[in-house]
Specification:
297 residues, alpha/beta, TIM Barrel, 2 domains, two-stranded antiparallel ribbon, 33% helix
C-alpha cells in the first residue's frame, strides 16, 4: 500500500486531504497524530551517526506511530560523502527495526539533463527511500509546462542505481513567493488540471511507490502552498483515497469436447443401410469360415 506524506501540516489538517504520514520533529507531535496516521521525523542531519544525531533519534525508538526518519533534504554529494549518510541509516535500522530512512535527492545536472550519478543509492548508503522532485509549473512555461521533466528525473534516478521500488514521487503543490528555479524562473501554483496531469504522469512512471511526497502543505518562503488551496486539496483527497481497481479475473476457457469421429465405409460416411449390409457380409463370411473348418477337420 502506498503511504501519502506532506510536509508542514498538522495531522488533523492533512488527514482531511487523505494524507496518512505527517511531518514531525518531536515525540509529543508524533504521539498526538490521529489514529492510523504515522510520522516521518525530520532530522536535518548529514554529519554521520554523531552523538547529536543519536540524541535526536533515541526518543523515537519503539514508538508505534513512527514511520521513519527524513535524514536530510537534498544533500550535495560533493560535500556530504555517502558514508556519512550510510552511518546514519545503519544506526536507525539497528536501533529502530522497521523504521524507514529517507532523503530528498539533489539534481547534480540540469533540468534538461538531470543526473544523480555518483551521489546516493541503496548500494552506498543503505537508505530505503529517495525523493525525486520535478516541479514543472513555472511562469515562463506556464502555457506549456515541461511535464517531460518528470520522465527525465525518473530515468536519471534509475540510471544512478536507485531502483523503482525506492523512488518517492515529489509533487509540486506550491507556487509564488521567493522560490526561484535553477533556470531563474518563478514557480507557479498548479491549476487543478495541471495537478492531475502531474499525478497521472507520475503514476505511469512509478505505479506503486512505497511513499508519495506532496511538497508542500505550509508556506515557507512567502509562497502559496496546499494548506491554503482548497481546490487542490480536493484533487489530493481523491488521489489519496482512491481504491485500486480490482484485478480483472482471467476468464476460464470452456472445455471444448473432443470431436466425435465420423464412421466411414470405404471412405464415405456410413448410412444405416450400409452398416446393415456390412454386418450381413460379416455374418456370411463367418459361416463360410466355419464350413471350411468342418471340411478340413
Amino acid at each position: 500500500m502506498t503511504l501519502r506524506y506532506t510536509s508542514g501540516g498538522a495531522g488533523s489538517a492533512i488527514a482531511a486531504a487523505g494524507f496518512n504520514v505527517a511531518d514531525v520533529s518531536y515525540v509529543s507531535a508524533l504521539n498526538e497524530l490521529p489514529a492510523g496516521m504515522l510520522g516521518l521525523v525530520y532530522l536535518g542531519e548529514k554529519s554521520g551517526a554523531t552523538d547529536a544525531f543519536k540524541a535526536k533519534v533515541k526518543p523515537f525508538i519503539g514508538n508505534p506511530k513512527l514511520y521513519g526518519f527524513f535524514l536530510c533534504d537534498e544533500p550535495d554529494a560533493r560535500y556530504v560523502p555517502a558514508s556519512l549518510l550510510k552511518a546514519e541509516s545503519d544506526y536507525i535500522h539497528t536501533t529502530c527495526p522497521g523504521a524507514k530512512t529517507f532523503i530528498s535527492m539533489n539534481n547534480m545536472g540540469s533540468v534538461a539533463s538531470p543526473s544523480f550519478m555518483n551521489t546516493y543509492n541503496p548500494a552506498n548508503t543503505g537508505i530505503d527511500l529517495y525523493g525525486i522532485g520535478a516541479y514543472p509549473i513555472k511562469a515562463k512555461t506556464l502555457s506549456n509546462p515541461d511535464y517531460a521533466m518528470i520522465d527525465r528525473m525518473v530515468a536519471a534516478a534509475l540510471a544512478s542505481g536507485i531502483p523503482l521500488s525506492a523512488i518517492v514521487p515529489e509533487y509540486q503543490a506550491f507556487g509564488g513567493g521567493n522560490w526561484i528555479s535553477s533556470t531563474g524562473d518563478a514557480f507557479v501554483v498548479p491549476t487543478v488540471a495541471q495537478m492531475q496531469t502531474m499525478l497521472d504522469r507520475w503514476a505511469k512512471l512509478v505505479p506503486s511507490p512505497q511513499l508519495e511526497y506532496c511538497y508542500k502543505w505550509s508556506s515557507q518562503n512567502g509562497d502559496t502552498a496546499l494548506g491554503t488551496l482548497p481546490e487542490l486539496q480536493k484533487v489530493f483527497l481523491a488521489h489519496n483515497t482512491a481504491t485500486a481497481p480490482a484485478p480483472t479475473p482471467t476468464p476460464v476457457p470452456t472445455p471444448v469436447p473432443a470431436p466425435i469421429s465420423t464412421l466411414t465405409i470405404e471412405g464415405q460416411p456410413a448410412t444405416q443401410a450400409g452398416i446393415d449390409a456390412l454386418v450381413a457380409a460379416r455374418n456370411a463370411a463367418q459361416k463360410i469360415i466355419a464350413s471350411v473348418k468342418t471340411l478340413v477337420a
